[in-house]
């Protein structure tokens, strides 16, 4: 359930509102193509994990196949991704509160949620997995319920939307590409953001007791999750409600229930998407403290973050990450209408770095394996290297589209600054602790493990 829930988040619940108004029904095609790319990425990750299952695979594979510097950059960039994602989710949660009360400033809600989640992470982590299970159950149930109700409206014709609900809404109002293919391409960064964190399925499977069975199952279910929860849900919503009635900043699920004439249902769905956003932010806050501790213990981060409390909590790392998430409060104060767009674009560019690393590492691994330098993976990516090259080209096209988009361009300005910070900090840490950045003979380590 956690894996399924990881494929359903703010990108679909909130981001799809702006994407629909920009691309119309053609957004369905954008999700389908992007979903195919995600499957290629996951299969590339699966090939690497079956070759050598590790925890924290992105930075470890970057270290092996690209070099110590790239492993360092990947570890810190993935930490940054989760910090920024926390800001995105708090921003989304704050916007959901506006549905019930417009008098509450968006930045106030963002501040309250950040503080509550911070203290919740300091109390106990014992029930974390259980809570995330139920949060995922709520999201899955909500989408399945929406699909079933939408099918009922289309087939039986009940509710206020019964007279206008028809599958012809997918092409009647301006065609399938009402604003042209160009605008559809411009939505790809929102679409890709919706899929960010799906790679955590592979990381979880890599830590399982029986990865040979659990990993293929986890990765091969990605297509049907995308087909049902993204493409299926969007087809139903856009058939029930004409695409022109959706507005940016408003959850299309909430808008659909309002159109159907179920205000109570709209309120319930708004509560569901609110809890989904807070759940993701909670996961990010939980993860970032542990990521900082892991970097510290490997000599690739300040020792300050390596200590645990008596209760086993990485207090310092969590506090530092939560403090950075407060930047989201300031963004919501300065640009309440643009906060989501600005932060989503930066989260997308930092999150896609992990995908680029996975694909490049898999290409280099495949070449070495084909030459007999490394053992072959038991879960080879189909169509590789061409599928991996296609996925890389697609990701770089999305980055180009972000450069064209005035709102998303902000994140590309920040990328060189982050790269400079990584390079300078790498040089400093390498001088202090050169052993932490030495190349490791992974092939020899694998032979030792196999012999054992």
Helix content range of the residues, please?
Answer: over 70%
Name the poorly predicted regions. Answer: 448-452
Count of helical segments?
A: 21
Major sheet size, sense and barrel closure: none
Number of strands: 0
Ends: how far apart?
34 Å
Q: What's the helix-strand series?
A: HHHHHHHHHHHHHHHHHHHHH
Q: What is the molecular shape?
A: globular
Give the C-alpha Rg. 22 Å
Strand and helix map with partners:
Elements: H1 2-6, H2 10-13, H3 15-23, H4 27-51, H5 57-65, H6 68-97, H7 106-123, H8 128-155, H9 180-186, H10 188-195, H11 200-206, H12 211-220, H13 222-240, H14 252-260, H15 263-297, H16 315-325, H17 327-334, H18 339-370, H19 386-404, H20 409-432, H21 442-451
Protein name: Amino acid permease
Organism: Streptomyces roseoverticillatus
Transmembrane segments: 29-49, 69-88, 108-128, 140-159, 179-201, 222-244, 264-286, 313-333, 339-363, 384-404, 410-429
Jot down its keywords:
mainly alpha; 452 residues; disordered C terminus; globular
Protein model, in words:
The protein is globular and about 70 Å long. It has helices at 2-6, 10-13, 15-23, 27-51, 57-65, 68-97, 106-123, 128-155, 180-186, 188-195, 200-206, 211-220, 222-240, 252-260, 263-297, 315-325, 327-334, 339-370, 386-404, 409-432, 442-451. With 452 residues, the chain is mainly α. Helix 6 (68-97) crosses helix 7 (106-123), helix 8 (128-155) packs across helix 13 and helix 18 crosses helix 20 (409-432). The protein starts with a helix and ends with a helix. Residues 448-452 have low confidence and may be disordered. The protein has 21 helices and no strands.
């Amino acid at each position: 359930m956690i894996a399924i829930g990881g494929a359903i988040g703010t990108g679909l619940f909130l981001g799809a509102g702006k994407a629909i108004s920009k691309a119309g029904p053609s957004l369905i095609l954008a999700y389908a193509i992007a979903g195919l790319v995600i499957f290629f990425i996951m299969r590339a990750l699966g090939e690497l994990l079956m070759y050598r299952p590790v925890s924290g695979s992105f930075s470890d594979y970057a270290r092996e196949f690209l070099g110590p510097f790239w492993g360092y950059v990947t570890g810190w960039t993935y930490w940054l991704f989760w910090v920024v994602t926390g800001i995105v989710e708090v921003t989304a949660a704050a916007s959901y509160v506006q549905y019930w009360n417009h008098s509450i400033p968006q930045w106030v809600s963002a501040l309250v949620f950040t503080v509550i989640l911070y203290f919740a992470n300091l109390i106990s982590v014992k029930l974390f997995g259980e809570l995330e299970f139920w949060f995922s159950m709520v999201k899955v149930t909500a989408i399945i319920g929406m699909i079933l109700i939408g099918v009922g409206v289309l087939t039986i014709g009940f509710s206020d939307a019964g007279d206008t609900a028809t599958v012809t809404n997918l092409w009647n109002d301006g065609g399938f590409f009402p604003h042209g293919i160009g605008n559809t391409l411009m939505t790809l960064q929102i679409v890709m953001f919706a899929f960010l964190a799906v790679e955590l399925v592979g990381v979880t499977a890599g830590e399982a007791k029986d990865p040979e069975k659990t990993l293929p199952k986890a990765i091969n279910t990605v297509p049907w999750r995308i087909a049902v929860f993204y493409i299926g849900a969007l087809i139903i919503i856009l058939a029930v409600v004409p695409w022109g009635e959706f507005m940016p900043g408003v959850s299309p699920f909430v808008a659909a229930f309002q159109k159907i004439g179920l205000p109570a249902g709209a309120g319930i769905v708004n509560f569901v998407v609110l809890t989904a956003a807070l759940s993701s932010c909670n996961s990010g806050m939980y993860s970032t403290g542990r990521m900082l501790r892991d970097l510290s213990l490997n000599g690739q981060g300040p020792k300050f973050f390596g200590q645990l409390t008596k209760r086993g909590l990485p207090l310092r790392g969590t506090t530092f990450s939560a403090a950075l998430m407060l930047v989201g409060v300031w963004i919501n104060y300065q640009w309440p209408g643009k906060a989501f767009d600005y932060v989503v674009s930066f989260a997308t560019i930092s999150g896609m770095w992990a995908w680029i690393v996975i694909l490049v590492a898999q290409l280099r691994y495949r070449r070495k394996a084909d030459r007999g330098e490394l053992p072959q993976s038991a879960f080879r990516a189909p169509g590789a290297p061409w599928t991996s090259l296609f996925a890389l080209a697609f990701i770089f096209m999305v980055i180009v589209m972000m450069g064209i988009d005035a709102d998303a361009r902000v994140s590309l300005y920040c990328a060189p600054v982050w790269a400079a910070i990584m390079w300078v900090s790498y040089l400093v840490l390498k001088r202090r602790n050169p052993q932490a950045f030495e190349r490791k003979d992974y092939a020899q380590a694998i032979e030792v493990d196999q012999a054992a």
